[in-house]
From TrEMBL:
<protein>
    <submittedName>
        <fullName>Hemerythrin domain-containing protein</fullName>
    </submittedName>
</protein>
<dbReference type="InterPro" id="IPR012312">
    <property type="entry name" value="Hemerythrin-like"/>
</dbReference>
<dbReference type="Pfam" id="PF01814">
    <property type="entry name" value="Hemerythrin"/>
</dbReference>
<feature type="domain" description="Hemerythrin-like">
    <location>
        <begin position="3"/>
        <end position="119"/>
    </location>
</feature>
Amino acid sequence: MNIFEALRQDHDIQRKLLEQLVDTSGDTSARDEIFKKLKTELEIHADAEERYFYKPLIDVDRTQDLARHGIAEHHEIDELIEQLEETDYSSSAWLKIAKDLQEKVEHHLEDEEHQFFQIAGKVFSDGNKTTLAKDYNKHMEDNR
Ligand SMILES: [Fe+2]
Ligand SMILES: [Fe+2]
């Protein structure tokens, strides 16, 4: 497995959880459960991805801007998660913010998969791609 396959696999988990999340309503255990799962998933992924994907890209001139952009989007995602935590599950605003989060994350995953992966593919050697995948997957396993 290379780093792109590893990241893509977890992006699909995020997409699925987001779909389930916007399908929940009110102060229910389903909403609580899915939100907590998604929050953990997004946070560990961002952390691992910054270490084993963006960090090596920041060190290279031609990918520095792209890496900074990606990391900035992680912060925007964090802010939406915080907003959700500060809002009551029973509030009508909750679903609206959850949909904003879905849109933001999906846009971010699109950027990563359709632009960043292509450029990073030219920067990393085959050996890099496999090693980064191993380190990324280990970090995910240890923290899930
Ligand atoms: Fe990301
Ligand atoms: Fe990602």
